[in-house]
Write a sequence for this structure.
């Protein structure tokens, strides 16, 4: 079985891209399944069911969605194997721009859209910077110039990625993506022992443990203070 | 080709001097070389030394992975060097036939289009225009659903056309496109010119704005916000901008509506800039401006029609009608009587 992790900011068009890509994979006789990770709510599973794609969803609720993803990705892989899938796609929304659920040597695709603004690529962390393939959507509604500027900004933060433009409505470009994500020789049986490409943000402060009160005396553990003296660093240096 | 290992041994300052374009790479990856300010000496450190000045906690905070960044930097430098070397000029594109949706062979033997050619594409919605464009953009090698093959300069193309972000074969101008940025016309064109590493930037920007104005029915100022341009003005700016700044040799135009833009001049501008123009249109005036017409049916190219002299003779008649209609439109816009 092949495993592909697809992530991207909310509303960037992940589900549309995946559905169109599955059409192409199915035409080659491959069995594809999807696991959708989200935070509080998703009804994308209905869309997959409608397309007759085996689907499971995982809602992280009060937990960090990406931590939830890593804690469950092995179980999900085993589900895909019992379903007899050729390709298992995990779809997750990058919610804090710092995280990345990508795993070493497992194909990683990031979906972002042209409408998100040309400064967005530099704001997104490892989710964009360490992806193998970057899919840019919604190109049909912005000008050619904006598309070119946006793609060049993506290229600046991740020069080694393959950049593909996909129209989620017509599916233009999704056939091409399908040829890049399936590799006949790849056979994943377990993820145990594999590693994330990038560490997730360190947390564990009092708020992680359920604290709701505001004020320094309630803050414990890994706490970082904003630097208001210097207007440029935002606490970075 | 420069390897990551060679870059590793150079100081950050040397890298910036040898490859000035890397400044934007550093900035976009969360490192401000110019901002070292109080500690300029750290710029003379090599890769390892430079990142050693940033402690582990800070690295994690900023999601910095020095090893990964070094590999990415080398990739970026190589791409930019290739991009700046304008050796590879495209002069022709060849489409070799595959099959339509039913598996029947397409109705042509070989279609060669050269820079300066205008080819129109006709056929109902859903007939396979997107797939044809997809095949060109992906430089198909008999490995797409149609089985078509695309050659560049009569040769099997370099796979980098497929995978590179900076280098795309096709630029697209479709009908429902909009400008979405909050910028003035000048700022916008400057931004695009900057991303294309244009040398005489100010001159190019002025020229694009002047050309766009000569195409637009109603002139506009360089200080106008792009989001407040009219449909015709937007299209004029998009076409002029693509003609001068797009790196893509092929331009696909999805219908140019006959409002607020001089369509003939727009095409002439693209031809002058040595573009290959593909135009999906059902407007007879535009279709006849093309040298050939590709007829698409059932997912395949059914035939290729050469525009004949006889057909062209209808063109002048149609253009006359077109001009008449346009002059009434102008009168209407200017608040005049249509009878005057």
């Amino acid at each position: 079985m092949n495993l592909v992790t697809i992530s991207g900011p909310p509303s960037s068009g992940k589900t549309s891209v995946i559905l169109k890509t599955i059409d192409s994979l199915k035409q080659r006789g491959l069995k594809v399944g999807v696991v959708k990770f989200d935070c509080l709510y998703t009804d994308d599973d209905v869309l997959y069911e409608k397309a007759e794609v085996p689907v499971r969803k995982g809602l992280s609720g009060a937990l960090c969605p990406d931590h939830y993803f890593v804690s469950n990705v092995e179980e999900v892989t085993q589900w895909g194997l019992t379903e007899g899938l050729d390709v298992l796609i995990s779809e997750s929304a990058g919610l804090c721009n710092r995280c990345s659920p990508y795993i070493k040597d497992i194909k990683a695709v990031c979906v972002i859209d042209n409408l998100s603004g040309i400064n967005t690529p530099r704001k997104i962390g490892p989710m964009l910077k360490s992806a193998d393939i970057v899919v840019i959507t919604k190109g049909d509604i912005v000008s050619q110039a904006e598309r070119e500027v946006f793609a060049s900004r993506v290229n600046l933060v991740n020069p080694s990625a393959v950049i593909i433009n996909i129209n989620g409505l017509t599916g233009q470009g999704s056939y091409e993506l399908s040829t890049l994500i399936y590799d006949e020789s790849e056979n994943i049986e377990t993820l145990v022992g594999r590693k994330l490409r990038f560490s997730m943000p360190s947390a564990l402060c009092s708020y992680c443990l359920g604290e709701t009160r505001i004020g320094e005396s309630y803050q414990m553990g890994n706490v970082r203070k904003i630097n208001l003296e210097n207007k440029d660093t935002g606490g970075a240096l | 080709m420069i390897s990551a290992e060679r870059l590793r041994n150079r100081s950050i300052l040397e890298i910036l001097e040898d490859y000035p374009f890397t400044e934007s790479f550093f900035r976009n990856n969360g490192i401000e070389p110019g901002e070292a300010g109080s500690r300029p000496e750290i710029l003379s450190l090599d890769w390892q030394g430079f990142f050693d000045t940033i402690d582990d906690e800070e690295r994690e905070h900023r999601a910095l992975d020095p090893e990964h960044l070094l590999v990415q930097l080398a990739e970026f430098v190589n791409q930019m060097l290739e991009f700046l070397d304008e050796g590879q000029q495209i002069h022709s594109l060849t489409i070799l036939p595959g099959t339509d949706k039913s598996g029947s062979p397409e109705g042509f033997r070989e279609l060669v289009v050269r820079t300066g050619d205008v080819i129109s594409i006709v056929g109902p919605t859903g007939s396979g225009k997107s797939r044809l464009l997809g095949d060109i953009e992906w430089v198909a090698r008999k490995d797409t659903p149609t089985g078509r093959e695309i050659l560049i300069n009569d040769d099997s193309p370099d796979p980098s056309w497929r995978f590179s972000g900076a280098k795309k074969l096709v630029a697209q101008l479709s009908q429902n496109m909009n400008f979405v940025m909050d910028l003035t016309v000048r700022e916008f064109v400057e931004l695009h010119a900057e991303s294309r590493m244009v040398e005489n930037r100010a001159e190019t920007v002025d020229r694009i704005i002047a050309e766009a104005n000569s195409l637009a029915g109603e002139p506009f100022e360089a200080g106008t916000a792009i989001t407040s341009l009219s449909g015709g003005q937007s299209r004029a700016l998009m076409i002029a901008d693509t003609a001068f700044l797009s790196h893509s040799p092929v331009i696909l135009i999805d219908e140019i509506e006959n409002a607020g833009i001089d369509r003939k001049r727009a095409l002439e501008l693209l031809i002058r800039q040595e573009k290959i123009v593909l135009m999906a249109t059902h407007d007879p005036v535009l279709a006849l401006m093309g040298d050939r017409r590709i007829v698409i049916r059932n997912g395949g190219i059914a035939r290729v029609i050469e525009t004949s002299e006889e057909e062209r003779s209808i063109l002048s008649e149609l253009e006359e009608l077109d001009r008449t209609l346009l002059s009434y439109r102008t009168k209407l816009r200017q608040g005049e009587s249509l009878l005057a």
